[in-house]
Every structure is written in structure tokens, then in C-alpha cells.
Design goal:
Low-confidence stretches: none
Structural class: mainly alpha
Radius of gyration: 19 Å
Distance between the termini: 52 Å
Order of helices and strands: HHHHHHHHHHH
Protein name: Transcriptional regulator, TetR family
Shape: globular
GO biological process, one term: regulation of DNA-templated transcription
Strand content: under 5%
Helix content: over 70%
CATH topology: Tetracycline Repressor, domain 2
CATH architecture: Orthogonal Bundle
InterPro entries: Homeodomain-like_sf, HTH-type_TetR-like_transc_reg, HTH_TetR, NicS_C, Tet_transcr_reg_TetR-rel_C_sf
Keywords: DNA-binding
Pfam families: TetR_C_29, TetR_N
Length: 201
């Protein structure tokens, strides 16, 4: 595909993500996406065929960002497995902080029964699980981590603890307005503590 085509698709996805985050998948308008991206509707439908397919692609784009963070950035440092766990949590936490539209879209997904996400998300969950599993079993072998931890539950706990912070951002940010960065860092340290207390012997 040409560079121009890739740039066109990127412009569409950026504006589509913004529109879906604001209005959800059903109330969003291709007309608005077309106007804001300055790409005509015919071209949008040429690439994505329908609003539903465009919405799926926005979800895939975000899930792929998470897969890149977890798949490429997290490696097993056998000399400091706790640092590996903390890095995994930190990368996901700051992904959510820096991708406000994704958080809003996932909130819309929850209210609509996650009909689209459930068909797109499994690969993302699995790659997070695989990376965590690699670190965990090495930690068990070294006598650092407890045996028989349910890793499915652990992944859900990491995701939930991080996601809640940004899904309830408006409430928390109003409470933390005078010292937001410090409070966000304190929240991250608290998440580390909860997860590591579960994992570590």
C-alpha cells in the first residue's frame, strides 16, 4: 500500500477514534469523521466498508498498541523479575493515561455488552498472559514468587486496577487537582504493592 494510502487511513482512524470515544459506536457519524478528517465518505467506505468495520479497526489499532508495549518492551531480566513485573504494570498504566480515547471507548463497550471487543480482544489478553507467565514461572523457579497463582485472575486484577484509575478520571482528578502527578505516581505504587504482595513469597 502506498504511503499516501497509509496516511489517509491514519487520518481516518484518528478522527474515528475521537468520534467513537465521544459518542460511542452507535451514535457516531461517518459524516463527522469525514468532515474532520477531510477524507470523503466514499474513500472511508472504500477502506473500511461500514461504520462497524471502522469501529473494529479503531479497537484493533489500540489493542495492537498494547500488544507492542507488552510484546516488545517487556523482557525477562532474570536478575530482577520484580522490576519486570513493575515495568509491565507501568507500561499499561501509562498507556491508559496517554490514550484517553481508548479508555472512553472501552467504557462504551461495557455499556453495550462488549459485542465488538469480545471478538477483537482475546489476542491482546493472551499476549499479556504469555509475558506474565514467562516472568512468573522464572520467579517460581528462583523462589521469588508463590506457586499456584491464578495468572488469569492476576491479569484481570492488573487490568482492573489500572483501568479504574482512568475510567474514573474526572472524579479522581478533581480530588487530586492540586498535586495530580504525585497522586498518579502514588496510585501506581499502590498497584505495584497489591500485585507484588499477591505474587511474592
Amino acid at each position: 500500500m502506498s504511503n499516501n494510502a497509509e496516511l489517509t487511513k491514519q487520518k481516518i482512524l484518528v478522527e474515528a477514534e475521537r468520534e467513537f470515544a465521544k459518542k460511542g459506536p452507535y451514535a457516531s457519524s461517518i459524516n463527522v469523521i469525514s468532515e474532520r478528517s477531510t477524507i470523503n465518505k466514499r474513500m472511508i467506505y472504500h477502506y473500511y466498508h461500514s461504520k462497524e468495520e471502522l469501529y473494529k479497526e479503531v479497537l484493533r489499532m489500540n489493542f495492537n498498541k498494547i500488544k507492542i508495549i507488552v510484546g516488545e518492551k517487556v523482557c525477562i531480566n532474570q536478575n530482577d523479575l520484580i522490576a519486570c513485573i513493575k515495568q509491565l504494570i507501568k507500561d499499561y498504566y501509562y498507556f491508559l493515561r496517554d490514550n484517553e480515547n481508548y479508555v472512553k471507548i472501552m467504557a462504551w463497550e461495557e455499556t453495550s455488552g462488549a459485542e465488538v471487543a469480545k471478538n477483537v480482544i482475546p489476542d491482546t489478553f493472551l499476549i499479556i498472559y504469555d509475558r506474565l507467565q514467562d516472568i512468573y514461572y522464572e520467579g517460581v523457579k528462583q523462589g521469588i514468587f508463590k506457586e499456584q497463582i491464578d495468572l488469569n485472575q492476576l491479569v484481570i486484577s492488573v487490568s482492573g486496577l489500572c483501568f479504574f484509575t482512568f475510567a474514573r478520571k474526572e472524579v479522581l482528578y478533581n480530588l487530586w487537582v492540586d498535586d495530580l502527578e504525585t497522586k498518579l505516581n502514588e496510585r501506581l505504587e499502590h498497584i505495584y504493592s497489591l500485585i507484588l504482595n499477591t505474587l511474592c513469597i
